UniProtKB/TrEMBL annotation:
Pfam families: EGF_3, EGF_CA, FXa_inhibition, G2F, Ldl_recept_b, NIDO, Thyroglobulin_1. One of its GO terms (molecular function) is calcium ion binding. InterPro entries: 6-blade_b-propeller_TolB-like (IPR011042), Cueball_EGF_LRP_Nidogen (IPR050778), EGF (IPR000742), EGF-like_Ca-bd_dom (IPR001881), EGF-type_Asp/Asn_hydroxyl_site (IPR000152), EGF_Ca-bd_CS (IPR018097), G2_nidogen/fibulin_G2F (IPR006605), GFP (IPR009017). LDL-receptor class B repeats lie at residues 882-924, 925-967, 968-1012. Residues 256-284 are annotated as: Disordered. This is Nidogen 1.
């Protein structure tokens, strides 16, 4: 059920009178009403007046939410609205970007102290105002859902043009420059985020989006161009909630018919979204991904003119409006309760829902664990670490990390395996590799919270370590992914940099230390200087130090006002630190005790529950009492006196804990319910409901085909079947009638005659062949003369087609319509309808099946592209430009076609032999493909240029390929019959490794769910569909005993795959591991590649998404940044290659 949600829009209109020639555009009557008659308040006149306007609905601007705007007189006369109190105008005029957040309508040094100008403002809910604003927004963003406005704030500037700071009258717009410091500079329009908090100890300039440039022509062009379909009207998205990506311009640069005059200049190109060619400066920011559920805040800037000649009283009017609208994707507890932890309650808030752990549990609501329960953590460690002055790094590839935490005393144990002796001793000082785990489950002092209580174990941590005195630097990146199905926390760690060398025989001692953790909205920081002592085998020792800075980012629930309040600083106290390297087992171990409490330091409270000096069982929680008194209470899932706890077998003690159609399995401290075969969990996650079982209606006789004497029932799998009339009958199979004999059949009978023993032809007589419909077959042969030839629809031989026996002539079936040439229907005649679709390839065409939620709307399926005489293998979809890409093995070639319209275009046609799989990076604007004859994987820009071979070794039959641009990985299959495998690498081809090599047969299809990172494949050798998480390798079977799968794609919990034998698209629920539907195209032939055409691009971001990552040519994402690579033919192109990082 869709729920209305609170989102904001902003719009801006500018009317300037004083053009020398008529140009139709926005007129005064079309602007928002202003003045006392419109209900406006008026700002007090003067040269430096201000007024803070408290908003009924918050303004969303960049990452911020503002409940007031400053309608100050520098804003009014100087043409901008601020989100904080602006400084003196001398500090910002001519200095862009300014040091505060602002929306610059048209900023300059303007003065209205003579009383001529006025500034009006109001909050408005009138339908006429809201409708006018919605028209601008909907026209500028035609691909989006139409908005429904509920609230507006309108600010209007009105002043005249007879002031000395307007130095010249040009042919067009005269309001171009402003005086600054005795000179003049062009007026400015744009958006400035203002300073943002980078870490606790520093800020940096936020993003700045400049609409106009540094020349007056760009200001003048505001009246001549558009990005909203109406001359002089400019619309921009400037903020979202809860996440923000970037400023986005309106999408329509051509003028609508009602605004275009005969003397209009040529429409600017679609990408020319601002008159000066907008310039956006973006500084490094935290990982905030765009959320498809929210509409952004567009800003509407309108510039107009009239035929009046300028006079002393020609008015200049600027109008700004803020809108509150409703979107339809926010969700409530009613249909999202399953997203909360089993041990949490869901609560609705005005803008959405939040999950809250129940008493006795702690976490962020989506992840909750029992108080006092020991915790286990698993993960992998990757990276490259240089030791001492070594020129070669030590490579870490999927080294296992295991951790165990005794939660009731804050003791954490961490072990990392397969660390070579060349590196192990030098990692001993880095106890903080495990220290973050200690922080997550630190023993909490009264009124303080550890890391898991705040983040739920879902956060990203980056630490920078600088060793002194050598200034070696090491970066630690860790991604904590919450709790997996085994109730273990999952963490992935990457190490990059250099550490000072520690001798093999030395040991390291680390004294107790403390760290101050600073908290802000979704951001935690800490820094410290630490000491460690190296004890050498000769009895000597030395003390060294390193500087430590770390940043932890997480996503709290944005809808609970109280959760957005930043915590006070807290101190993590760490003691009993133990570090050891076991060179025999190549294992490094860390152990430490952790407490979180007041920054004022001092010893913890005397109560043993806060010092950890109790005698409670490791599966018990310590409950403090008065003074030093305490009690031990076994945590959930255990029973006993608290000092000794035993596992509670819930399945035996409470027989009805699971549904009667479920199996209960006991585990230490918990239990699990699993529905029996034929049942699945209902939406409450507890009740098991019966799954519709496949029924063979043909065998049961429950079909609706005609009687067996006239039709037959054909079972097609699942509960589906088709009806077909028998030979001699015609109809749809459900109603068949006897067919009249055709000319061919009469001809055949006349030759055969009627003999007592059945029809027998006279010796040497030619007998025509008829098809099932009774028509002449296009190829006729006569065995006696050993010749074959083509015939027309009347059975008459076509001259010049006769061939010798054994050679079949190429005949065109006269009973079918000739194949059209080109895309019929053309994409521009029948574009893809709105919504999400399946796209799949069939010989000679690409079809689509619309999706209603996750279900196939089979009755609305149709071909979107006809490609006669082509064999399309792979299909991919660019969600940004709405373009289909496909590989063709007959040409061979890679081609594309826009779903907005236009003919197919060949992108690459040279140096290909058998292109098969294809994948699109919609963020970095590149495509990847496999060639099974050349045994290589290549990349190119989407126009086919900048082509480069990424991998050309160790491949035999590469087929499917998938790109994960958000995380920076490639995945592909190789169906080498001697050694099939599934591999992965970074998107630049580096860090290649085998993911799966055992128990594979013919891995044809491959897909990745961008939301869950679940990698699934369809294997035509093992006849299975299987899935795994590439980071934890938890391989599981989804389907077994299927027939012959080829392509596969994922959407939500559903998998859709094509099958060669069934000649169908089959839908499967991966959670229940059951087929749920199938689609049978009208043309029954082999189906090949399949993909999802998203209505909106999946949310996410990588370093290549902005300014091509700063690369000159190819920008290829990696998990930690990007690589700048050159095409293979880069000679003379001025290309610069740079390695991973940013």
């Amino acid at each position: 059920m869709a729920v209305r949600a609170h989102v904001c829009f902003a719009a801006l209109a500018l009317l300037l009178l004083g053009f020398a020639r008529p140009v139709p555009c926005v007129r005064l009557a079309e602007l928002f009403e202003f003045g006392r008659s419109a209900g406006d308040e008026q700002l007090r006149r003067g040269s430096d007046q201000s007024r803070q306007l408290e908003l009924e609905t918050p303004l969303l601007f960049y990452h911020g939410t503002f409940r007031s705007v400053h309608v100050s007189y520098p804003i009014n006369t100087n043409g901008f609205v601020a989100v904080s109190q602006p400084p003196e105008e001398s500090e910002y005029l001519g200095n862009t970007p300014a040091g505060f957040g602002m929306i610059a309508v048209l900023m300059g040094d303007l003065d209205t102290s003579d009383g001529v100008g006025s500034v009006y403002f109001r909050q408005d809910r009138r339908p006429a105002t809201l409708q006018r604003a919605a028209e601008h927004i909907n026209r500028a963003f035609p691909e989006d859902e139409e908005v429904e406005l509920s609230h507006a704030v309108v600010v209007t500037w009105r002043y005249t043009t007879n002031y000395p700071f307007l130095p010249c009258l040009l042919e067009g717009l005269q309001f171009l420059s402003t005086s600054v410091g005795g000179g003049t500079v062009p007026m400015q329009a744009g958006f400035n985020q203002g300073p943002v908090k980078y870490t606790f100890w520093s800020t940096q300039p936020g993003n700045y989006y400049q609409i106009t440039s540094d020349n007056e022509q760009s200001v003048k062009d505001l009246a001549e161009q558009t990005n909203s379909g109406k001359r002089g009207v400019w619309v921009f998205e400037i903020g979202t909630a809860p996440y923000f990506s970037s400023i986005t311009a309106g999408e329509v640069t051509a003028f609508s018919p009602d605004t275009k005059a005969e003397d209009d200049p040529p429409s600017p190109a679609r990408h020319a979204v601002s008159p000066g060619g907008h310039r956006e400066v973006q500084h490094p920011r935290y990982d905030t991904q765009p959320h498809e559920a929210h509409k952004a805040i567009p800003l509407d800037l309108s510039v107009c003119s009239s035929t009046l000649q300028p006079t002393a009283r020609d008015p200049v009017i600027l109008c700004y409006a803020l809108y509150t609208v409703f979107s339809y994707n926010f969700e409530t507890c009613a249909n999202n309760r399953q997203k909360c932890s089993t041990f949490a309650d869901c609560r609705d808030y005005p803008s959405g829902y939040c999950c809250h752990c129940r008493p006795g549990f702690y976490g962020n609501g989506k992840q909750c664990v029992a108080e006092g329960k020991p915790q286990r953590m698993n993960g992998k460690v990757n990276g490259r670490v240089y030791v001492g002055n070594s020129p070669s790094p030590v490579e870490l590839r999927n080294n296992d990390l295991h951790s165990y935490v005794v939660a009731n005393d804050g003791r954490a144990y961490v072990a990392i395996s397969t660390i070579p002796i060349s590196l192990g001793p030098s990692l001993l000082p880095l106890s903080s590799l495990g220290g973050v785990i200690g922080w997550a489950f630190a023993l909490e002092q009264p009124s303080f919270e550890n890391g898991f209580s705040i983040t739920g174990g879902e956060f990203t941590r980056q630490a920078e370590v600088t060793f002194l005195p050598g200034n070696e630097k090491l970066t630690i990146r860790q991604n904590f992914q919450g709790i997996d199905e085994h109730e273990h926390l999952v963490v992935n760690t990457e190490l990059e940099g250099r550490v000072p060398q520690i001798p093999r025989a030395a040991t390291v001692q680390i004294d107790p230390y403390s760290e101050i953790y600073q908290y802000s909205n979704n951001l935690i920081t800490s820094s410290s200087t630490r000491e460690y002592t190296i004890n050498h085998d000769d009895g000597s020792s030395e003390t060294r130090t390193f500087q430590w800075r770390q940043t932890i980012t997480f996503q709290g629930c944005p809808h609970d006002e109280s959760s957005r309040t930043a915590l006070s600083p807290q101190q993590l106290s760490v003691d009993q630190v133990f570090v050891m390297y076991d060179d025999g087992n190549q294992l490094i171990r860390y152990a430490m005790s952790n407490k979180i409490g007041s920054v004022n330091g001092g010893e913890p409270r005397d109560n043993p529950c806060f010092t950890g000096q109790h005698r409670c069982d490791t599966n018990a929680v310590c409950r403090p009492g008065h003074g030093n008194q305490f009690t031990c209470e076994c945590t959930g899932g255990f029973t006993g006196d608290g000092y000794t706890c035993y596992d509670l077998d819930e399945c035996r003690e409470t027989p009805h804990v699971c549904d009667r159609n479920a199996i209960c399995s006991n585990y230490p401290g918990t239990y699990r319910c699993q529905c029996i075969d034929g049942f699945q969990f209902a939406s409450d996650g507890h009740t098991c409901v019966e799954v519709d079982q496949p029924v063979d209606h043909c065998q049961r006789g429950t079909h609706n085909c005609d009687i067996p004497e006239r039709a037959r029932c054909i079972y097609t799998g699942g509960s589906s079947y088709t009806c077909s009339c028998l030979s001699g009958f015609q109809g749809d199979g459900r109603a068949c009638r006897e067919r009249q004999k055709t000319r061919c059949e009469h001809h055949r009978e006349s030759v055969l005659g009627a003999e007592p023993r059945g029809p027998r032809p006279p010796l040497g007589q030619y007998v025509p062949e008829c098809d099932e419909a009774g028509n002449y077959k296009p190829v006729q042969c006569h065995a006696s003369i050993r010749k074959c030839w083509c015939v027309d629809r009347n059975g008459v031989e076509i001259p010049g087609t006769r061939t010798e026996w054994g050679t079949v002539p190429m005949c065109i079936d006269p009973n079918t319509e000739p194949r059209p040439v080109g895309p019929t229907p053309r994409p521009d005649v029948h574009p893809l309808p709105p919504g999400t679709h399946l796209l799949f390839a069939q010989s000679g065409k690409i079809e689509h099946v619309p999706l209603d939620g996750y279900n196939m709307k089979k009755n609305e399926a149709k071909a979107v592209l006809y490609l006669p005489d082509k064999v399309v293998i792979g299909v991919a979809y660019d969600c940004v430009d709405k373009v289909i890409f496909w590989t063709d093995i007959t040409s061979p070639s890679i081609s594309k076609a826009s779903l907005h319209g236009g003919e197919p275009t060949t992108v690459i046609s040279s140096d290909l032999e058998s292109p098969e799989g294809i994948a699109i990076d919609h963020l970095g604007r590149t495509m990847f493909w496999t060639d099974s004859m050349q045994d290589r994987i290549e990349v190119a820009s989407l126009d086919g240029r900048q082509r480069r071979v990424l991998i050309n070794t160790g491949l035999v039959n590469p087929r499917a390929i998938i790109a994960d641009p958000i995380r920076g990985y490639l995945y592909w299959t190789d169906w080498n019959r001697d050694a099939p495998k599934i591999e992965t690498s970074y998107m630049d081809g580096s860090n290649r490794r085998v993911l799966v090599k055992d128990d594979l047969g013919l891995p044809n299809g491959l897909t990745l769910d961008p939301q869950t990172s679940l990698l699934c494949w369809a294997d035509a050798g093992t006849l299975r569909v299987e899935c795994m998480n590439p980071s934890v390798s938890n391989r599981k079977k989804v389907l077994e005993g299927i027939q012959y799968p080829f392509g596969i794609t994922a959407y939500g919990s559903n998998l859709y795959y094509t099958d060669w034998q069934r000649k169908a698209v089959i839908m499967t629920d991966s959670s229940t591991k059951k087929e749920t539907d199938e689609f049978l195209p009208s043309k029954r032939s082999r189906l090949y590649g399949i993909t999802i055409a998203y209505a909106q691009c999946p949310s996410g971001y990588n370093y290549c998404a902005v300014n091509n990552g700063g690369c000159t040519h190819l920008c290829l994402a990696t998990p930690s940044g990007r690589s700048c690579l050159c095409p293979d033919d880069a000679v003379g192109l001025g290309c610069v290659e740079r390695g991973t990082g940013y």
